[in-house]
Amino acid sequence: MNEAPAGAIQGWHIEAVGTVGSTNDEARQLASDGCPDRTVVWATEQTSGRGRHGRTWVSPPGNLYSSCILRTSRPPAERPQIGLLAALAIADTVAGLMPAAAPKLTLKWPNDVLVGGAKVSGILVESFEPPAGGGVVILGMGVNVASHPQVPDRPSMALNQAGFGGTIEQLLQNLLGYLAVRLDEWEAGGFAAIRMDWLHWATVGQPITVRLGAEVLSGVFSGLDDSGGLILAQGDNTRVLAAGEVFENAG
Predict the structure, then answer these.
(1) Which domains does the chain possess?
(2) Is the pTM of this model over 0.85?
(3) Which residue has the higher pLDDT, 48 or 71?
């Protein structure tokens, strides 16, 4: 079983659970039972982990698997922004722990963190209303530390390959510290500052393809709108997308 990270992590309560089916499912149950805000489920392994679009998230020991329970007063329409700020917190963490990797860091909409064009983490945001009422967001975050999945068309890598020599405990401690800062910023001031910092790591101007179910769109990534939607430039026209799967084109 995991041990709590060394040192205090102000404002977070960590539930170390060893092997579970899904940290998001464990977190949902804890939230339904009335656990405190900013409770974190931390597992060594998931047997039924899942990612966006219903994909399986391969979860062997050696990587970071966590889900945060967040009780927010922000309206439901704004809650998907948590995925963007979580990706920003992971980028903050990787840059802080691995300064040499910082020039290779990029963010890809909506919430992928890449090092040298390869994905190093996964984020899943699920919102629900527990029986006791009040809005709850379950923020699932997985970071490839010792291994990474092999997925066609989606290059990935582990942080150890990029020179990370620390522990999972150290990674979690730093990540929760940065995440708290970003959440407080968002709760107090909304998305504007998050948007600006997120775009610092993004490849604005990159030709992309976006899959929306059966629809495939091509254009240029032109930034985020005020709510976090992707702005896709197509010639003289622009389109704002609230969902979709982005692939960066070679040119």
Answers:
(1) 13-200 (3.30.930.10), 207-248 (2.30.30.100)
(2) yes
(3) 71
